[in-house]
Write a structure and sequence with these properties.
By secondary structure, the protein is an alpha/beta fold. It is 25% helix and 26% strand.
Length: 371
Amino acid sequence: MEDEEEDPPLAVRIDETTHEFSNSHENDDVSVGVTVITGFLGAGKSTLVNYILNGKHGKRIAVILNEFGEEIGVERAMINEGEGGALVEEWVELANGCICCTVKHSLVQALEQLVQRKERLDHILLETTGLANPAPLASVLWLDDQLESAVRLDSIITVVDAKNLLFQIDKYRHLSSYPEAIHQIAFADVVILNKVDLVSPERSGDSLDELEKEIHEINSLAHVIRSVRCQVDLSEVLNCRAYDATHVTRLEGLLEEHQYKSSQNLHDNNVRTLSICEPLAVNLDKVRLWLEEILWDKKDGMDVYRCKGVLSVKHSDQLHTLQAVREIYEIVPARKWRTEETQMNKIVFIGHHLNQDILQDSFRTCTLATT
């Protein structure tokens, strides 16, 4: 339980003369990945950040310690407009070349300042202290016009406590509201199952398998990593490219791997995952209207947190990818369908009050010819 209270890594304040910014990185058009780190109190978020900061990985990584709280969801307009005053309270440089700062106001402008520094960054970590729901952050980072050329949302990582997670899930399983931990799992691309060493040794294998099953019941697309004190292979948590529409191979792999991990109860009201498939090509305009009805109008009471999929579009030889976080979605052509491939629509939904019959039947109308 000491994870959230441990001392930050030893650091040396950057001299004022090094705070020079350039407007662009010459000969460099590659955006910097941002990894959002969230997790329940005491799960080990700070442990993960400290492990990365102290690691000898040869990467220059910036860490933003976020103190936004829930108001980020209603401050989007203000953030986009910008505001006066000091945005970055403190910059420190660590012995391994990583940078750390604390931000209180504008996330967008803080990130812009980071990527404009003369020293090229390899990655940015954003620890969401005090932020229960990572969805507002994802929407700001994913499709924000001010940022998309400079930074990109790489992934959302949720750290969970292996010893207490099952209790947290069971406690709220039949209630209409859910704790932070469940929402954080639902939005995660990677779930670090931390403190596995504290699970009872005599049945740790079965218990950990059960925990992974519970996690995949909520979010079958999440990659689960078991850890002790968040000591993980950094290649599994950095540069995941989870929101990169051009990284279609990873998305296809996820859809294939988790096709049979959807919850079995088709009318389960818990937060869960389900998938739909449709072999006939779809009308893209109809898909957009269908998706907006689900995401924006909460069709039949369904509350979709995330969805991912691939689409076979009429009169197009391009495989299209679909991603959505809450009300924000993106459908883009990713690559040409290969000759040997079976063109198929596959969509995975993560959310609350999901109904597979309604989703499947309503999506099928997108295959009909326009009258």
